[in-house]
Amino acid sequence: GAVVSQHPSWVICKSGTSVKIECRSLDFQATTMFWYRQFPKQSLMLMATSNEGSKATYEQGVEKDKFLINHASLTLSTLTVTSAHPEDSSFYICSARDRVAGGGEQYFGPGTRLTVT
Amino acid sequence: AQSVTQPDIHITVSEGASLELRCNYSYGATPYLFWYVQSPGQGLQLLLKYFSGDTLVQGIKGFEAEFKRSQSSFNLRKPSVHWSDAAEYFCAVGARAGGYNKLIFGAGTRLAVHP
Predict the structure, then answer these.
(1) Taking CB atoms and an 8 Å cutoff, what residues of chain A touch B37?
(2) Averaged pLDDT score across all residues of chain A
(3) Does position B76 have pLDDT exceeding 90, yes or no?
(4) Is there a contact between A9 and A110 (Cβ–Cβ < 8 Å)?
(5) Do B102 and A4 touch (CB under 8 A)?
């Protein structure tokens, strides 16, 4: 149980284009999902917290107009990187918190590797 | 402010040897503490967590961790390391009051296992 999927697992896009990454909780409902960014050999940096049916909360320094987050249902959140640039190349990881189960832990997706050329 | 320190960036052990990965945290109240493991190109898998109660926590894959409030530490241990344990290990702290809405991760410790 508690499986989180991400799609795509990797994507290459040209500079200036936009790319959408999906995060799905497969066997539980998640009122809250989180988006992280991880640079090579570094730790995870929280970008934003996504709550179902409301606007995402962005961490300081994260451009909300560049990283658009939508949490339209209890099982799906999307991150859209708009007008991507090479510096946006990174490993993006989402996580989800089970609405029903206690414990407060987050279940992580396998990540999406974005390369902007 | 909440923070997590993992002093060891890289550790190498021989297969079958014991392992201890260090984690120190800074948080005003009793924290939620987690250890995650990340294999190359993969997401994070929860090894174990501490919320309250017994300060010695058992996790998956033979790992355990001990919460020591006096030292603000939550070190991860394993008595005998297997080659498949080679990975990146992250310690994390979460806020407690009213549930938490984010995890603060340490920088990670990369574990290499020699045969």
Answers:
(1) none
(2) 90
(3) yes
(4) yes
(5) no
